[in-house]
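User: quick one - fold this with manganese (II) ion bound?
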Amino acid sequence: MSTANYSFAPVALPYAQDALAPVISAETVAFHYGKHLQAYINNLNAALPGSGFEGKSLEEIVKESSGGIFNNAGQVLNHTLYFTQFRPYGKPGAPDAPEGALAKAIERDFGSFEAFKEEFQKKGAGLFGSGWVWLAADAAGKLQITQEQNAGNPVCRGLKPLLTFDVWEHAYYLDYQNRRPDHLSALWNIIDWEVVAGRYAK
Ligand code: MN
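Assistant: Sure. C-alpha cells for the protein plus manganese (II) ion:
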C-alpha cells in the first residue's frame, strides 16, 4: 500500500536557518524545524493510513480529529504558520508594524499596536505549560488573542489564525533558558507583517 500521495512534508523556510539570529539562533532553528517539526510530520504520516483522514487538508484534519492525530496535525499546522511568519533579522526596509487593513483592525480592537503587543506578550508569558498564543480573526474580521494549550489552533474555534508565538520550551530554551518573556519580546523584531496582513486579507 502506498501512502505517498497523502503524506505531509515540512514547509520550506523562506529564509536561511541563521537569518533569525540573534532573536532565534541557527541552532534553535535546526532543532525546532529540523527535529521537532519533522517528528510531528513523521508521526502524522505514520498515523494517517486507515484513519479516515487520508487525502484531507491539514486544516480539515485539525478541525475533525482528536487524540494523537490531532496532536500531531495541530503541531504541523501550528509550526507551518509559525515558521512562515518570520523574515530575516535586520532585513532592510521591512516594516516593524502592520500596515493597511490589519493595522486599522488592531487599533480598533486593541486601542493601539503597542497595547496589542503588550496583551499578546502577557498572554504568551502567562500561558501555563506548553502551548501557543495567537492573533486570530472571526468571520467579520474582528481580532482576538487566544491562548491554546499544547497543539491547539484557533481554527478549532472557527477563527482564522494570523500570528502565533510558540511557548513550548523547545522554541526558546537553547537561547533564553527559562526567560520566556525575553524571548517573546524579541520576536517582534523578526515578524514579517506582510505575511500576517496577507493572512488577514485572505
Ligand atoms: Mn514548537
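One thing worth noting: The chain has a mean pLDDT of 96.
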